[in-house]
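At this stage, I put together a protein sequence along with its fold in token form, as given directly below:
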Amino acid sequence: MKLQNGSDVRGIALEGVEGEAVNLRPEAANLIAAAFVKFLAKKLGKAAGELKIAVGHDSRLSATSLKEAALQGILAEGAQAFDCRMASTPAMFMSIVFPETQMDGSIMITASHLPFNRNGLKFFTADGGLEKENIIELLQTAAGLEERSADLGLAKPLALIDIYAASLCEKIRQGINSSDNYEKPLSGMHIVVDAGNGAGGFFAGKVLAELGADTSGSLYLEPDGSFPNHIPNPENQAAMDAIKGAVLASRADLGIIFDTDVDRMSAVLPDGQQISRNALIAMMAAILAPDYPGSTIITDSVTSDELADFLENKLQLKHHRYMRGYKNVINECIRLNKAGTVSPLAIETSGHGALSENYYLDDGAYLAVKLLIAAAKARQEGKVLADLVADLKHPAEEKEYRLKIKGVEEFRSYGKNVLAEFEKRAKAQGIQMAVPSYEGIRLVFPGEGWVLLRMSLHDPNMPMNMESQQAGGCAKLTEKVKALVEGFEHLDISVLGG
């Protein structure tokens, strides 16, 4: 049960990091995959023998052993198993959608951007990724099973990434709709990719080059689960510096960087400007705004006031600042659309972005497709991609502290009490608060910035995020709110300074 991590399974799959003992062994993957067969059979009302389940993985060193164990678990339950080998998380969901595959369910073996020794499993049905309660059910079922074996030769090979890449190519062709060169609409454009030695290297050869783009200068396209160059994570500054350097050195028109399993991305413009975090949200919203006028953009809780101003006053959209966690923003987007509020985009500052037009799937490659179409159209009109976010302003400073909760078993309830007292103290001082706040307490300091205190999604700590409109302002904001978190016996605020 300790392998449950939100709506995924995650654990330590390899030795090599001191103090981190292996707890995600092939046996666990075997039992959990068998439990997934039982879950699907019950959900779909089918016999196990009628089920088709695909399994893929990213470049992690532990991928093959976990995949083989999972395939055996599926086969031993009597279901049909398909080995997709190297794939991306979005591609694994699309294996359910594509008419030529039509899987009943799929499993992606990945731990996203986490270190080399970690791994995990993500599960999909036609309804999308499983929820936290589904993962708990899977693990409870798996705990009551015994490891089973089967002939791996019965697993059918499936070149899923080729089918997926071809579908992306066709979306770009249709989106650009070039009368001059429909088949290769990216001809004349120079686009570099940094895959971070994850699973995203296919995008350079099977999509960009296929459409005529020059991809010379691309970085780390070869899969290598030791991640020797940088963490494959668009939130990592070393990773962003790498793609920025590649764009400038190659004089490219655009740079695209993916995380390990390609469900997140960021970009770099020709002058080295990073399109990540708030800027990525602004760019995607600007691309979508003409097709969804007046619609609602769902973001996580740490987006900037400058972004809100851009969305609402420049693009004439509505900004719904919700909770962190990609499943949270996606589910809120689905809820709003079902309730009749048009919401085309749910996106986190982490780079997880899901579009209603794309099955609410957080797909880094699909975001890249939207950027490429916009870039090609801008080029045809004598414009540049940066024009879309020319009016976006940025805070002068931003900061995140993590206040650890120590010595408490029920850290969530303790954090809830801290937040209640934090709010009470702020009100007593007459400090303004953002209303509504769907996650934590957000304090507003007009003309200066804001501070958000919230609970971590998974860990015993309380992140405190802040942004300032002034240079040196974060230090001033820290001093203003320090007294609001003092005196809690189990809350370590030493990171805020003496």
In short: The first strand starts at residue 4 and ends at 5.
